[in-house]
Amino acid sequence: MDNQVIEGQTISFADIRYGLTYHNCTIEASFETVRVDSVTFDHCTFEQTDFVRSEWLDTIIDHCEFLNAEFNESYFFRTEIKSCRMMGCDFSNRTVFKETTFRDCQLSYSNFSVANFQEVEFRRCDLKETSFQAVEIKKKLTFPESNIEGCDFIETNMKSVDFSESEFETVILDPKLVRGLTINAYQATILVALLGIKLK
After folding, report:
1. Which residues of 134-173 are buried (b: 16+ CB within 10 A; e: fewer)?
2. Helix, strand, or coil here: 18?
3. Cys-Cys crosslink for 91: which of 29, 95, 136, 157, Cβ 3.0 to 4.6 Å?
4. CA distance linking residue 165 with residue 1, whole number of Å
5. What is the pTM of this model?
């Protein structure tokens, strides 16, 4: 991969080049479908919120902002998203995340419903009241050191999900689909109450 850094420029998506790093750049809105491969965006500003059907391959997105952006039907492969503000983003409707990591991101009130997760990690993220309804999970979905308070997993099979290192007092689960969910001992007492089970 080329290590060239483009600094402080205004760039259109059409001019984004494979293998380059864009630092403190402004990325102009695109009227075409966004497709990015082997690029690093570091402290960049994006002038659009519509990323529907976009593709992000082998990409690093670091310290960027996507408030209330739409990523429906998009594809993320071997992508790392770090320290980004993404509150209220919509990743629903068959968006695919494969070997992707969210790290230190603000994702509260986002929507991942009906997405597909294949070996995905949310590490130290704020996911308060985020929706994971009816998602498909292959291999694993983990939330180490993340806040998943109020997250909604209705209609989601939890057998490949690991909550054991996450933080929550309330989470919404489908009782019929919790088998195989990994939790810690403290979380077990919380989930027993949430599922309406009485302890004596």
Report:
1. bbebeeebbbeebbbbbbbbeebbbebbbbeebebeebeb
2. coil
3. 95
4. 34
5. 0.93
